[in-house]
Amino acid sequence: MSKLDALLLLSICIGAFIMPFICKRISIPSAVGEILFGLGVGLFFKEVFQQTSIIKYLGELGFMLLMYLAGLEIDFEKIKITPLKELLLYVTMIAATVILSLGAAYVYGLPAIYALIFLTTAIGLLFPVLKETGLLEKDTGQMLLIVGSIGEVVSLLGLTVFILYYRSGFSWESLEHLGEIGAFIVLAYIIYKLFRLVVWWFPGLVRPFLRGGDPTESGIRANFVNMFVFVALAALLNMELIIGAFLGGMAFALIFKKRAEIQHRIGSFAYGFLIPVFFIEVGLRFDIKDFIDIQVVVMALVIAFLIFAVRIMAAPVLLLSELTLMEILLVPISTSFSLTLLVAIATFGLEQHVIPRDQAASILLAALLTAFIYPALLKKIIKTNELANHE
Fold first, then answer.
1. Cβ atoms 227, 68 nearer than 8 A
2. Phi, psi (5° rounding) for residue 111?
3. If we measure between CA atoms, which residue out of 15, 14, 6, 16 comes closest to residue 273?
4. Are the beta carbons of 370 and 342 closer than 8 angstroms?
5. High-pLDDT (> 70) share of the chain, %
6. What is the SS3 assignment for 125?
7. Cα(235)–Cα(337) distance, integer angstroms
8. Quick one: CA torsion of 334, 250, 321, 159, rounded to 10 degrees?
9. Where would a tag sit more exposed on the chain, N or C end, judged by fewer CB atoms within 10 A?
10. Is 391 helix (H, G, I), strand (E, B) or coil?
11. 285: CB partners within 8 A, 6+ apart
12. Span between the terminal Cα atoms of the chain, in Å
């Protein structure tokens, strides 16, 4: 490691430490501040970053952990106890969002990746918003998490399909890759079933996966093993590693119901360093001048608007549910700030040359805008209507 590499790593570590405090004072998500910090650091270390590999490696590891935690956050138990009618309506709303996203990309003559951008849903930022407003433990908050979770699974499936289409188009190679994906799903299902069987026969084996605080931190070790098993399977089957990490987290969430403690410990470790490094690294990939181009700004505003618009147009499906009009309004707003996955798509598009640099900058700027605007709007509506207190 050269001296400049060490200075860059030190700068990133300092940023990862101080940005949460600064972001809390100015009321913005930490991820937004970390990306902006990366942009600032890039003014001084751009050439060093392009030549060094350690930051990119740490960022990729943080990205995998982010996706693993995204899978781990999905509460399948709540989805299972949701009435079938309501669940079908939520799925229908997500399906309508997908169709409308494809339509919006077609009407505006945009590349296929934009349909993925418009439909992408993630619940990473939704948790703190619901917790802050007191809605997390209420029925409305749980409903928003269930809809968001379904949308997140669909988004990851959409990302997988897009990667397949980008690499091979409609060809025999695509069919072969679909077979590999099918093999991956079958292997994941077999692993899931075998583990459930082992846990049923030997319930004591569950403890090492869920235990935290012991000298060896066996729970964290077990989760890392689980994540890298799925990452390795994805690599062997020519799939994106982040898809493997996400499915690994989902498999863990399916098997273990009482995982709050270990989930908190892994989240503390990941969000404490590696995930901030990923967001800072994303900022390092761009120049500040990429974001002051008027065309980039206008495109970012259009993307941010269309992300919300396709959800508003899909929301009337929920009129058939037992939700109130106010709750129906909250659904499109709460699913419109998918910062983590939007950043992931912009990063993938730029790395794989699917989109030019200015479009990647527009997507990233749109991700930042949605993380500012829609959470604030959600908080305002909840506070104005005192939803948390009425339930």
1. yes
2. -60, 160
3. 16
4. yes
5. 86
6. coil
7. 30
8. 60
9. N
10. coil
11. 38, 42, 347, 350
12. 56
Count of domains forming the chain: 1
CATH value at residue 101 = 1.20.1530.20
How big is the chain, counted in residues? 391
Query: What secondary structure does DSSP assign to 275-287, as a single string?
Result: HHHHHHHHHHTS-
Report the phi/psi class of residue 217: left, alpha or beta, with left for phi > 0 and alpha for psi in -120 to 50.
left
pLDDT grade for 169, boundaries at 50, 70 and 90: low
CB 304 within 8 A of CB 373: yes
- CB neighbour class for 258 (10 Å; exposed up to 12, middle 13-18, buried from 19): exposed
Question: What's the predicted TM-score (pTM) here?
Answer: 0.79
Instruction: Measure the CA–CA gap between 38 and 33, rounded to whole angstroms.
Output: 9
Those residues whose C-beta lies under 8 Å from the C-beta of residue 91, and which sit 6 or more positions away, are 150
Amino acid code (one letter) for 214:
D
User: Cα separations (Å) of 255 from 71, 76, 250?
Assistant: 12, 10, 9
Token reading at 191: 């692993």
Query: Which of these ranges, 35-39, 85-89, 191-195, 341-345, has the smallest mean pLDDT?
Result: 191-195
List alpha helices for the chain, DSSP H.
3-26, 30-51, 54-72, 76-81, 84-107, 113-119, 126-133, 139-168, 172-201, 207-210, 218-236, 241-255, 260-269, 275-284, 294-314, 325-334, 339-351, 357-385, 387-390
- Distance (Å, whole) CA 317 – CA 158: 21
Cα–Cα distance between 52 and 12 in angstroms, integer?
A: 13
Return the exposure string of 102-137: e unless at least 16 CB atoms fall within 10 Å of the residue's CB, then b: bebbeeeebeebbbbbbbbbbbbbbeebbeebbbbe
Alpha-carbon gap, residue 375 to 109, rounded angstroms: 29
- CA–CA separation, 141 and 126 (whole Å): 9
Question: 349 with 308: CB under 8 angstroms?
Answer: no
Give me the amino acid identity at 190. I
**DSSP label of 27:** T
Question: Domain residues for 260?
Answer: 3-390
Q: Could you tell me where the DSSP H helices lie in 270-356?
A: 275-284, 294-314, 325-334, 339-351
